[in-house]
């Protein structure tokens, strides 16, 4: 019986990954570096690495890359603010599961961006706790985020599920000994999800599997 569900945020609960791509591409373009969607997907969503490695390859130093990262973060915040980003079917799914098991968000998103995203989402009341990028040393695909969630929940891995949308998230979950449901989005569809427990077409399928 499932006692806990750990949810990724971007691409699972909210439609924000295209905005992160946009902000990053704009900043890299200022340095004359073109970032394609395919390159972003490969580096960020599959490997879980920083696309600013492209700037390093062009000879940009540590300080310059850090300034680029700060500008990207500010731009991303601008793109997020004042809009509702909740994906279709998410709120009714959380309503159906609320009270039936522990639920948490485990995200690689910075806390300030996470708070902007959920200013108007109405989703946070469904979760027992939230872990953002500041709550662990290593980001996905490292298993630390989900190992931290297991420790916080007090539940055994075999009683928990993860809901992810990317290859890096799937790898983090599996490496932590967790079963993972994958709901691919626009940028992650077509990835290698053979390690997933199941790949879902619609997030509304989650309560049926839990039941």
Automatic annotation (TrEMBL):
The keyword Metal-binding applies. CDD domains: HAD_BPGM-like. The keyword Transmembrane does not apply. Keywords: Carbohydrate metabolism, Magnesium, Metal-binding. It comes from the Bacteria. Gene3D superfamilies: HAD superfamily/HAD-like, Putative phosphatase, domain 2. Its cofactor is Mg(2+). Belongs to the HAD-like hydrolase superfamily. CbbY/CbbZ/Gph/YieH family. This is Haloacid dehalogenase. It comes from Desulfuromonas versatilis.
């Amino acid at each position: 019986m499932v006692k806990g569900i750990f949810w990724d945020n971007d691409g699972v609960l909210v439609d924000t990954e295209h905005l992160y791509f946009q902000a990053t591409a704009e900043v890299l373009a200022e340095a004359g570096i073109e970032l394609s969607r395919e390159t972003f997907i490969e580096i960020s969503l599959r490997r879980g690495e920083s696309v600013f490695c492209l700037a390093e390859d062009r000879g940009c130093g540590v300080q310059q890359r850090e300034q680029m990262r700060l500008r990207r973060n500010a731009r991303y915040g601008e793109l997020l603010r004042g809009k509702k980003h909740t994906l279709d079917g998410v709120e009714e799914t959380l309503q159906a599961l609320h009270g039936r098991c522990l639920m948490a968000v485990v995200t690689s998103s910075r806390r300030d961006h996470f708070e902007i995203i959920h200013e108007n989402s109405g989703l946070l009341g469904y979760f027992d706790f939230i872990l953002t990028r500041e709550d662990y040393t290593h980001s996905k695909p490292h298993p630390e985020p989900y190992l931290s969630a297991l420790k916080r929940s007090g539940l055994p891995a075999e009683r928990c599920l993860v809901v992810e949308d990317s290859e890096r998230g799937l790898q983090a979950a599996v490496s932590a000994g967790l079963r993972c449901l994958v709901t691919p989005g626009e940028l992650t569809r077509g990835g290698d999800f053979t390690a997933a427990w199941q790949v879902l077409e619609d997030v509304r399928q989650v309560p049926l599997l839990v039941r």
